[in-house]
Amino acid sequence: MTPLRRLLAGALSATLLAVPLTPAHAADLRIANAGFDEGLTGWSGSHSPGGVTATVWEGRTTARVGDTEPAQAYGRESLPGLPATAGTRYTARATVWAESGAADLYLRFRGSSGQLLGSASASVSGRRWNDVTASGIAPAGTMTVSALIYSGVANVGTAYWDEVLITKEVTDLGVQIESSVPNATTFAGGRAYAVYTGTADTNPRLAVIDLATETVQASIVIPDTAGTPTVGGWAAATATDGSVYLGTYPNSKLYRHVPGQTTVTDLGRAEGGYSFIWDLEPGAGGKVYGGTYNDGRYFTYDRGAFTTIGQVPIVAGAEYVRSLAHDPAANATYLGTGTNASLVRFDNVTGRVDSLLPAAYAHNSMVGGLTWTGGRLFAWIDRTLLVLEIVRNTDGSHRAVTDATITDVDLHHSPARDGKVWLVKEGVLHSYDLAARSLQATAVRPGLDITGYTWLNGTLTGLGAAEDGTRIFTYAPATGQWSSRVVRDTPVLPAAINALGAGPDGRIYTGGYLTGGTGVYDPLRGDADDSTPDTPTLTGISQTDSLLSHDGRLYLGVYPSAKLYSHDPAGPWPPTLRYTAGAAGSKADDCEPGKGPPPQDRPYALAGGPDGTIYMGTVPKYGKRSGALTVWKEGTAGRTLCVVRDQAVVSLAFAGGKLFGGTSTRGALGVNPVYAPGASATLFSYDPATGEVRPHPLPLTEPKAVTALTEVDGRLWGLAGGSLFTLDPARPDAITVTRLFADPDYAARPGLAWRDGVLLTVDKDPGHVYGTVGDQIFRINRSTKALTVLLTVPGMEGLTADRFGDLYYKTNERLHRHTVTAP
């Protein structure tokens, strides 16, 4: 894939930043029998014969190096070596117990004929398990690298060695998460046509699935160009001529597939469209209607041409045309828009626009789904389904009369048949009787997120996403018989990494963008294949925005609705839902004086208190500016609080007995302007004992965001744009500022104002603090605040450290490690 494709794909959202890098297929370097579980197999004799045996020590399988002769040297080397490249820094590390004397670890570089070209070494002593590290740059001519456990001349002693590992300075660990679930589905001729999302590095696919046999008949790559890359699609529709149309992002492209053919045709970009085609609806004569984000455009595609219909945006102030429904008899289209919700009827003959949204839903962000079936309009608004009768007034206008209001309903529902529409409410299949205006539950729990329904020989049939992949759900109303079966051989595609963090079990956890899923990586113990995950993707939760290890548990902040989960690594997956900040507050409020927060959506910040309390900082739901602070402790209900009006909470740290938080002047998606005019991001403190919230303004000129906070040696450190600030928690208004970089370009990349910076410490380098801003990984001297840039990687995001003190970051779908060597 070209660099331009990756660059443009990065415009998709703040959470998907593409990277102009060519993957290096290397992944982990694995020494065979690194832990001596197979005795000394794979370890060749070195120096004097004897002296090395395999044994168990302190409950571990080890290599015992026993040296009783001061004139002799003993050791074993991991030969043959691992592939290495001249000019690259490598690090060997091991765990060793030096019962007496010293224990030496060597990193050795060899040429094409096995000749020794150079080495690096380190020594350790002590009657306990110690970590020892040796690091060096491979000299010219290097072909392999190996590790040597050693006791040199003049040394006398006994050492027990375990877990000898080697890594490069920078390692591309590859794909961590995979997905095999559809985003959009349409039906034609007994087949489902399902869109499977890709990434900036991997094109999406269209799967053609035979519903009767539950088999994939074709998996077709959705093409693109370098200038207009395609990542995925939420829109699919079948036209009256039988053609299948797909609407994609981040390029607002329309594609057509003719059933029976083996290709998908790129029809070009929707007129004026910028990012998403959110929905498609068939019209008469083979045409299709569509709606876009972010210009709120309503368009048609007919006989090879795009035409904008009505004004742009179709509703004043709208950025989203999120949903469409078409009434072919009246030649009228219903449009659900956002970010401030509206519902209109557009007469395609006269151009008349009638507003239909009931006043009670005006505070919602958007109308997320529309269906015209059985002579009724079904409008889905934040899990509430309205059944609306559309009535024509005497003056030719139209109004909506609500037949039914059904809460906690999944997005999709069936076409009407025999006077009923079928839907899933609270996980249970229900029927809605159009004439009686009544709802009836069955005993059936489909157990999947259905992306589309059709009728096949009188049987309700749905296709959708489940924890184990794509499933087909069937239900026969006449008999009550039902089934749910996995569809085999659906496309399996990488998922972009959205968040990463170290778990209490020492593993690195990654959360998938958009399609969800969780990856788990065991540091330095991965395989050499970086095209697929080392471990199967964990399913059961949606997009993870943040991760925290605290008191032996892994906490996950999950989008949408800012859900807080906890996971015990010794227990089963999926994790336990603890709190939902999206259910708190009122949609009518935005932290105005005397009022509470709006419902929250994106949990970008997590921190833990010494008493086990978990704090979560969030960005609100679409169209709102005021984020919030959630306070939760096991055994309590939890609560969500306003802290800084009109600003999101994007960083948290506990220091000096108080919680400190950093804000962003960027609110949720859909606010206009993007940044609150004239506002300055700020620091605040929260006192757990009293509940008091105090702002601590920063001595900076209108900073856009405080994206990182951490406690260092009893002080609070933070990042605001390119500036580092520090303070004593006991005197939080005495703030010292050090300029590190120019501020990131938040206008061009507004997503950075939610999650740009990270600060952290690693035990093996107590003299420095490590961090990232923009595309740079750096370290800062704790005493002098002197800055050293370690790595510049366009498009990199996130930073965490493993138990060895090595750093991890992500570029789109790939996880990378940077090995830290203390200066």
Write a short abstract of this structure:
InterPro entries: WD40/YVTN_repeat-like_dom_sf. With about 800 residues, the protein is mostly beta strands.
Secondary-structure map with pairings?
Blueprint lengths: L2 H7 L33 E5 L4 E6 L2 E8 L6 E5 L3 E2 L5 E22 L5 E22 L6 E8 L5 E12 L1 E6 L2 E2 L4 E5 L2 E6 L8 E6 L4 E7 L10 E7 L5 E6 L3 E5 L7 E5 L6 E7 L5 E6 L4 E5 L2 E4 L11 E8 L4 E7 L3 E6 L5 E3 L13 E5 L2 E6 L2 E9 L5 E9 L2 E5 L6 E6 L2 E6 L4 E4 L7 E8 L2 E8 L2 E7 L6 E5 L6 E2 L2 E6 L5 E5 L5 E4 L22 E7 L2 E6 L4 E5 L8 E5 L19 E9 L5 E7 L7 E5 L6 E3 L6 E8 L2 E7 L18 E4 L6 E4 L9 E7 L2 E6 L2 E6 L2 E9 L12 H4 L2 E3 L7 E6 L2 E6 L5 E6 L4 E5 L5 E5 L2 E5 L5
Explain this structure to me?
With 823 residues, this protein is mostly beta strands. Among the domains are: 43-169, Jelly Rolls (Sandwich); 178-486, Methylamine Dehydrogenase, Chain H, CATH 2.130.10.10. Helix content is 1%, strand content 51%. The protein contains two helices and 66 strands. The strands form 16 sheets. Strands 1, 2, 3, 4, 5, 6, 7, 8 and 9 form a nine-stranded antiparallel β-sheet that branches. A four-stranded antiparallel β-sheet has the order 10-66-65-64, with no helix packed on it. Strands 12-13-14-15 form a four-stranded antiparallel β-sheet, with no helix packed on it. Strand 50 and strand 51 form a beta hairpin. Residues 524-543, 581-606 are annotated as: Disordered. This is CBM-cenC domain-containing protein. Residues 1-26 form the signal peptide. Residues 533-543 have a biased composition (Polar residues).
